[in-house]
Amino acid sequence: MKTLKSVTLGIALIVTSSFIQAKATDVPEINLTKTHAINIYVDAMTRGRIDGLNQVVDQSAKFSMLRGKSILSFTKKEMTDYLKHEKNIEQVCTTSTEIVENNPDMAVVRVDMKFDNFTRSNYVTVANTGSGWKITNVYSVFK
Questions:
Q1: Most exposed among 9, 106, 111, 137, judged by the fewest C-beta atoms under 10 Å?
Q2: What pTM, to 2 d.p., does this model score?
Q3: 30-88: per-residue pLDDT in tens?
Q4: Which pLDDT tens digit goes with each residue over 103-113?
């Protein structure tokens, strides 16, 4: 019986320390601001820096892209998998941001990526999810 208690206590300590260690790499909720979420998104899209992206994109986020007369839609997993393949690849574009709408619960920010022959405008919606500000929707248009 004493051995069983010791084994159980040991397993509990290992499991607890694993959760604590995993959580230590996350950004505290207080730092999950609108600005932080947008900056992480811009870094991922323009510089291929994907560190922190998973944390600032909500699990239910939707990514849509207007291509001609078709709308392509992607899940968070599909978009993050794609960006992993583009890791550390810097886009040759000029990037600018503009707040389109802003209130205490959500914001829409336009992120323009101006290339030589076209501009990709990303309308990024960030929402105060209760566990920090997270990206919930991105709608991309090419001009």
A1: 9
A2: 0.76
A3: 578 999 999 999 999 999 998 999 999 999 999 999 888 899 999 999 999 998 888 88
A4: 999 999 999 99
Q: How many residues does the chain have?
A: 143
In three state form, how does the secondary structure of the chain look?
CHHHHHHHHHHHHHHHHHHHHHHHCCCCHHHCCHHHHHHHHHHHHHHCCCCCHHHHEEEEEEEEEEECCEEEEEEHHHHHHHHHHCCCCCCCCEEEEEEEEECCCEEEEEEEEECCCCEEEEEEEEEECCCCEEEEEEEEEEC
Q: What whole-number distance in Å separates Cα of residue 3 and Cα of residue 10?
A: 10
Looking at this protein, which amino acid is placed at residue 127? Answer: A
